[in-house]
Amino acid sequence: MAEEAGLDLVEISPNANPPVVKIIDWSKYQYQKMKEAQKNRRSNKQGELKQMRFGMKIGQGDLDIKLRKVREFLVDGHKVRLQIFFRGRENAHRDLGYEMIKRIATLLENDAVLEHEPQMAGRNLSVVIRSK
Prior knowledge:
By secondary structure, the chain is of the alpha+beta class. The protein has helices at about 1-5, 25-45, 60-75, 95-105, and strands at about 10-15, 20-25, 50-55, 80-85, 110-115, 120, 125-130. The protein has two domains: about 1-45, Ubiquitin-like (UB roll); about 50-130, 2-Layer Sandwich (Translation Initiation Factor IF3). Helices cover about 40% and strands about 30% of the residues. It is rod-shaped, with a radius of gyration of 27 Å.
């Protein structure tokens, strides 16, 4: 029957009694499987790590705008690294940076959760957040 139709006879379950076979166009089947795998890879793409930088002297309006953008990143499924950078003498007051991170975390507590404690790296204080 497969030869008459110009198709392939594919063994589906060889251990069954009697063995199960199917008449299909093998090359078309392989193409469809390949396209399905590509689609799954695209849709399962791991969220990127976005970054948002804050200065120590940021105003409330600028902070609100940046937090709105951070929320958009979180809704899209990305992780976000919040980074506070210190300039000059600001470096002597790192405790203010930690307070700022806590303030930002409380503003984002409905949308995000901290992945780890804030860490200093050179002149930058950073923390990674992800959506709840």
